[in-house]
Amino acid sequence: RLLCAHCVHIDQGEMKRLRKAGAGIAHCPTSNLKLASGFAQLGNMLDVGLNVGVGTDGPASNNDLDMFEEMRLAAVMSKAVSNDPTVVPARQALELATISGARAVHLGHLTGSLEAGKRADLIVVEMNGVHNWPQFHSNPDAVYSRLIYASKSTDVAHVMCNGSWLMQDRQLLTLDEPRALAAAAEVAARIDAFVQERESSPYQKLVMLAGVQRMESYEIQIKVPLADDKAILEALENEQWEVIKQTHYKQYDHYLHFDGHDPDAARLRFREDTMANAKGELTGSRTRLTLIGETDRDELANAVMLSRSRFLASATNSLRFYREYFDPATETVVQKERRRWRILFEDTEFALNLDRVLEPALPGYFLEVKARTWSRTDAIRKSEMVAELLERLGVSPTLAEKREYVELATAPQ
Fold first, then answer.
1. pLDDT average, residue stretch 196-200
2. What is the mean pLDDT of residues 389-394?
3. Does 145 have pLDDT greater than 60?
4. Which of 58, 133, 268, 371 has a Cα at 20 to 30 A from 302?
5. Is the peptide bond before 360 cis (omega within 30 degrees of 0)?
6. 243 and 131 share one domain
7. What percent of the chain clears pLDDT 90, i.e. is strictly above it?
8. Rg (CA), the chain
9. Residue 207: inside a domain, yes or no?
10. Confidence band, pLDDT 50/70/90 cuts, at residue 197
11. Which of 145, 174, 203 corresponds to the end of one domain?
């Protein structure tokens, strides 16, 4: 027995397959709105004959778990999505919370309607409040409009479940409400303390993610602007060093900048690489996270920069997730086309990147020379090799650009 939650993006064919399988649908409009998940095609689901009920999802994506609000949203959202004010009338919206919902969870034979042999599950709603006045009786379905469009959950006076009263005259009968509220406040305080301790900085929040591990990385690099790419391509073609690997891809970098309270976590870079073959056809993609601090750079000889990444990891969640989770102060987008050659130069591996910055559009090209390093002595040795490598390519290190791409992107033009 299958109950499918949300079903925001299913098409007509999938709806029919779910109906044939006897599946139920839990339509959760507040959750879909709060999480920007999209709009379920509720009218189409009902036309196909699916059993649909309204749900609240969980408190993280709904907060008050108000079924009256879910009924109202189910009715009004479906009208806006379909551009048809007759879709999901009030009577049908009430069915979503009663008999149709019971069928969706495969309990229609037990509950969902007041019939002989079924469980006595009911609520009594007072409809004399000012917000539900005046009332009209010319249309027999007007009572459904009052229930769906005007009534509130606070109008519920009595609740019966399986023949037993759970609430009478708005007084809960089966639990101690003040005691429950006090217990909830105690749990909330413990959660607050946990969050403040474990998520006190971007770094702490990052290592708290499931499956994430700390991994520091050091590299030396130099970046030199070029007017065009012809000379460097010719030089690369004529050199006799060993090319280990050559790749061509586009890089989409999204930087999340933080407020500076943690100098070890000034910004988090969400990077998506899309690789292409010689024909320009997409051959693969990958996403990564890099946490960068304010003081994670140092200048060596020949304008070579030594940089440290506090954290490297695959990005297993969407950009939208990281934006909401980290709540950055500002954001910067940098997009570039990159051609990379991994080479062996004097038995040492280097990466040569020929970059063209597309967003924001920057003139010309940039040649980057990079290498991983394991100690300061190793970094100094490799920085000296970089100067020789650039000379072989006909590029002067005196023209080096010491700023990173994100700094170039945010610099006044």
1. 78
2. 90
3. yes
4. 268
5. yes
6. no
7. 67
8. 31
9. no
10. confident
11. 174
Q: Indicate the number of domains in the chain.
A: 2
Amino acid identity of residue 399, one-letter, is: L
Q: Containing H/E element for 54?
A: strand 51-54
- Provide the whole-model pTM: 0.71
Q: What is the CATH number of the domain that holds 53?
A: 3.20.20.140
Are 225 and 305 contained in the same domain? yes
> Could you tell me if 386 and 307 lie in one domain?
yes
Domain span holding position 395: 213-410
Cβ proximity of 56 and 31 under 8 Å: yes
Q: What's the whole-number mean pLDDT along residues 320-349? A: 93
Residues 6+ apart with CB under 8 A from 275: 247, 248, 249, 282, 283, 284, 285
Residue by residue, DSSP assigns 158-218 as EEEETTEEEEETTEESSS-HHHHHHHHHHHHHHHHHHHHHHTSSHHHHHHHSTT-----EE
pLDDT tier for residue 287 given thresholds of 50, 70 and 90: very high
Residue 182 lies in a domain: no
Question: How far apart are alpha carbons 297 and 30 in whole angstroms?
Answer: 46
Q: Which of 375, 366, 369 is nearest to 349 (CA)?
A: 369
Other beta carbons less than 10 A from residue 20's beta carbon: 10
Do 169 and 217 reside in the same domain of the chain? no
Q: Are residues 225 and 350 in the same domain?
A: yes
> Is residue 201 in some structural domain?
no
Predicted pLDDT of residue 298: 72
Q: Tell me, yes or no, whether 358 lies in a domain.
A: yes
